[in-house]
Design a protein that fits this description.
266 residues, alpha/beta, Rossmann fold, five-stranded parallel β-sheet, four-stranded parallel β-sheet, 10 helices, elongated
Length: 266
């Protein structure tokens, strides 16, 4: 999704954009923020004529569309004063336009755009005059919600998160570089993993080694069909299978169990 905050300087666009990002992060997302002032600084665009503003908006549009195409959530905060460009963006990307405005004097009136064109249809109206940031964000998400990521991450199936090195990859010489997955599979790995998959287990690899290196290794050893996902981030699973694993039950037994762990007892 793309949330595009528009409005005069000082009316609360960036504040609400950042608050929305925080709320989305609480829901498990990692949205990107594209801010008008930041983009101007990055591109050294100090042209505040209509042509200069349009150039800045077009750059933001391209960035937002690219990230959107990668499946990311994008939050944009721009004055975006020209209605025709905004309507064009809504038609091409399906973005959510959020019109932020206030009747309060906030000290940035000298930077207001005289020819700003208010939206006419298909937008979320947010008056920040007497409304808290929290209530504004709640309104936005009520009118344009994102799907709960909990449905994607909290997998209630029989999911096994399997470590790569020392569990699937033989790893006989220890760490030899992030890109160097040098060994063949552990003895019996292919056969047992296939049996687990046939029994209905969902198999995922979770490792600190780059995912692409693992994916290429799986293709080399014809094991790519076994796994639903390869990730460098922790995801929800029923059981985590790791050669360095430690089964936590309570803090009272941690010291004793760690002292007996093979990785420390060597």
């Amino acid at each position: 999704m793309i949330y595009w905050f528009i409005g005069q300087p000082g009316h609360g666009k960036t504040t609400l954009a950042k608050a929305l990002i925080d709320q989305l992060r609480r829901g498990g997302y990692s949205p990107y923020h594209v801010d008008g002032d930041d983009l101007r600084a990055l591109t050294t665009n100090k042209d505040y004529s209509r042509a200069g503003r349009e150039a800045n908006i077009r750059r933001a549009q391209n960035i937002a569309q690219y990230l959107h195409g990668q499946g990311e959530i994008v939050v944009v905060s721009f004055v975006s004063p020209y209605r025709d460009i905004r309507e064009e963006l809504k038609q091409t990307t399906g973005l959510t336009e959020v019109y932020v405005h206030t009747t309060e004097i906030r000290g940035k009136e000298d930077r207001h755009v005289n020819d700003f064109e208010e939206p006419l249809n298909n937008f979320i109206d947010v008056d920040t005059t007497n409304t808290s940031v929290e209530d504004c964000v709640a309104l936005i998400l009520e009118e344009s919600p994102v799907p709960s990521k909990e449905l994607k991450t909290l997998d209630k199936r029989k999911t096994l998160a399997v470590d790569f090195d020392g569990v699937i990859h033989r790893y006989s010489k220890g760490f030899q570089g992030l890109e160097n997955a040098y060994d063949p599979p552990m003895d019996g790995a292919r056969e047992v993993l296939q049996k687990l998959k046939d029994k209905g287990y969902v198999l995922k690899i979770m490792s600190s080694r780059p995912a692409l290196v693992i994916e290429e290794w799986l293709v080399k050893y014809e094991m790519e069909d076994l796994f639903d996902e390869v990730s460098n981030n922790k995801f929800a699973a029923t059981v985590y299978l790791d050669d360095r694993g430690f089964h936590f039950t309570n803090w009272a037994s941690v010291e004793e169990k760690l002292a007996l762990h093979p990785k420390f007892a060597q």
